[in-house]
Write a structure and sequence with these properties.
Length: 271
């Protein structure tokens, strides 16, 4: 990748928990490409994770705790980020997802609906809140880029992915609706990236996720896209090279989403 793709750009990166996090790798690559940014996660995640180590690697990036479901916390986050970084923002990464029903292994036919609402708030509605706060503060520069990470369970059924599938579908819908609004208001582009199954902390909480990964790898002509390659894709979407891409759900999955069957699967079924 070319050097200094994000030179002079400022942003906020949500969701870096540990070295397995896609957001962690995005932060590292954004730093390598010349960006300045703040790091944020929920206060409890900050206590559990290793984000201060990442901050040190990224030129002592400021870490600002924020519950992404709290408009008050987000308002503080955007205000402080602009103060720390010295101006409006050019990019935001929303890498947030959690389902109490999945964590508690509730059967899909026996969901706790209060928990389901929590899933939607954390994993999808928070994306709307992030953009609404950014709009109200006029925090984004023109031609800025806002991304959220999604998964193909928004379109297809996967056992044990449970209500996270509905959350991802809502996330992608919010990106389209707010993408249209932000394009008119500030020429800001809004997209989601539908990543291959990736063994992050969130992903590992889904039952049978290792099987998801193995199956996807066999179906995808290029194999599963790694977290590192997803981070590269995010950097390209933050850069000026993709200024006319908006309101899209971008498949980053090695071809999984458009493959029917592969020789690997055929050979396996013949055994």
């Amino acid at each position: 990748m070319a050097n200094n793709l994000l030179q002079g750009k400022r942003g906020i990166i949500f969701g870096a928990l540990n070295e397995d996090s896609i957001a962690w790798k995005v932060a590292q690559k954004a730093h390598e490409q010349g960006a300045a940014f703040t790091l944020t996660n929920a206060p409890i995640a900050l206590r559990m994770g290793e984000i201060n180590k990442l901050a040190e690697q990224c030129n002592s990036a400021e870490v600002i705790g924020a519950d992404a479901t709290s408009v008050e916390d987000l308002d503080n986050l955007f205000t402080k980020s602009q103060e720390v970084l010295g101006g409006k923002l050019d990019f935001v990464l929303h890498s947030i997802g959690m389902s109490p029903n999945v964590r508690k292994k509730k059967e899909y036919g026996d969901l706790n609906y209060d928990w389901m609402l929590k899933t939607m708030d954390i994993s999808a509605i928070s994306f709307h809140k992030v953009m609404a706060v950014a709009e109200k503060q006029d925090a984004m520069n023109e031609w800025g880029s806002i991304l959220a990470l999604s998964y193909i369970a928004a379109q297809r059924t996967f056992p044990d992915y449970s209500d996270m599938a509905q959350a991802k579908a809502m996330l992608e819908s919010i990106a389209r609706s707010y993408g249209e609004r932000f394009a008119r208001l500030k020429k800001v582009r809004v997209n989601t990236i539908s990543q291959s199954p990736t063994m992050t902390t969130a992903g590992s909480g889904v039952g049978g996720f290792d099987v998801f990964m193995s199956y996807a790898d066999k179906i995808s002509p290029l194999g599963n896209a790694s977290a590192e390659s997803c981070a590269d894709y995010c950097i390209s979407m933050f850069s000026d090279l993709t200024k006319m891409v908006t309101m899209q759900n971008l498949m980053h999955d090695g071809g999984f989403s458009t493959s029917g069957i592969t020789e690997d699967i055929i050979d396996q079924m013949r055994k």
